[in-house]
């Protein structure tokens, strides 16, 4: 079944195939030169190569070929962001017929009501991706995707074909108030990603997990938004995370397999497999910013200190555990400092970004409205630097004095428990809330820049700079700031 057409990008006029020639036909490799006739009779050649054990077509340009146009009409296009939230292009939300989106390294055309995903992957992103759109209202589609070759680079094309390879449902103001069972049968196990579209067309991305309640420094306890049925993992349900900031959702929800896990069939490819098999493991890890995505923790969590300290005193073993207690007091300071450093980084990001936006507003008054919205979002990031270590160190000294005392205070938990004024856990909880909210605000800022670039090409340079700055700020997250 024909899913898409690939043609050289031209400024105007039709492009037709005029000739093709096999350069190499071997057991595990087929290479074909295809010559197209462009405007004015100009010949344009693209080389297509397919290896027998890799269902991905590599393309390289001949003279005069700047890029490849992928024609696979679809309402929904996805630019997977391996770092944070995806960008989902809903053709119905783009009022102009030609626009640009950030040149990451991947574009997904979501086709045939969940049965096919046609992808373009590239290694040199020197020019943004161009989209052409056509149709009106419900018939509006992304008609073509123009991807450009960088110097010495290639573009890879692939199709993932399977019933239910992706899923979609429409969210409404009523449906987001309750759990919705998807009319979809998950075709295989793996790491499935769910993209929830907000009313402002930004995206909130989550991986499918087990159902239940989770905790976040931003929202407190909340219902996890997308999950598989524990009794039947082919069934799935969603309930958007409306407790988080900017939690007003409407429009398409999209799900697809981003990565494999230990239960994924060996012969089943996912989106990450396509990237690895196209670009190679090293370049793929660089593009996915694997180093920056790593979530780390430092020291001992304040809640852990509370539990251990109270137990030690409860069992009257504080004098026997002085070395252990002293180590805990030092380790919790490491934790407090690590979170504080992240808060201070976000505060610096806030100040620098507001300064940059102020300069851009003067230089580009035509973008003043959008820049104003970016400024408003940036001000939601915590702006004051913190230094909680001295206070926690002082509490630690008090705890150690009590540990060495013959008559320690009975309410030792007043120095450790959450909710007790001036306690270790209260200090940690306060910092956790700040760092989680700051990260969430930066993620939304990144999404705002992403979608604005699609609806207003004149904002492209500003949006790309904001995306660059936000990615740097989001790197190296600590566990307590995630979600």
Describe this structure in a few short sentences:
By secondary structure, this protein is α+β, with helices and mostly antiparallel strands.
Task: Give a description of the structure.
This protein folds into 3 domains: 5-160, no CATH class; 166-267, no CATH class; 302-481. It is built from 9 helices and 23 strands. It has helices spanning 271-279, 281-287, 290-293, 302-314, 322-363, 368-378, 389-404, 424-455, 460-474, and strands at 5-8, 16-25, 29-37, 43-51, 54-61, 67-71, 76-79, 87-90, 98-101, 106-111, 116-122, 129-134, 141-148, 155-161, 166-171, 180-181, 191-198, 203-207, 213-216, 220-223, 226-228, 236-238, 249-259. The strands form 5 sheets. The protein has a 9-stranded antiparallel sheet with strand order 2-3-4-5-14-11-10-7-8. A 5-stranded antiparallel sheet has the order 1-6-13-12-9, with helices on one face. A 4-stranded antiparallel sheet has the order 15-23-17-18, with helices on one face. A hairpin with a 3-residue loop joins β2 (16-25) and β3. α4 (302-314) packs antiparallel against α8 (424-455) and α5 (322-363) packs antiparallel against α6. It is elongated, with a radius of gyration of 26 Å.
- Tally of DSSP β-strands: 23
- Give the overall pLDDT as a whole number: 90
Distance separating the two termini: 41 Å
How much strand? Answer: 25-35%
| Biggest β-sheet: strands ordered side by side in the sheet | 2-3-4-5-14-11-10-7-8
The backbone outline, from C-alpha atoms, is elongated
Query: How many separate domains?
Result: 3
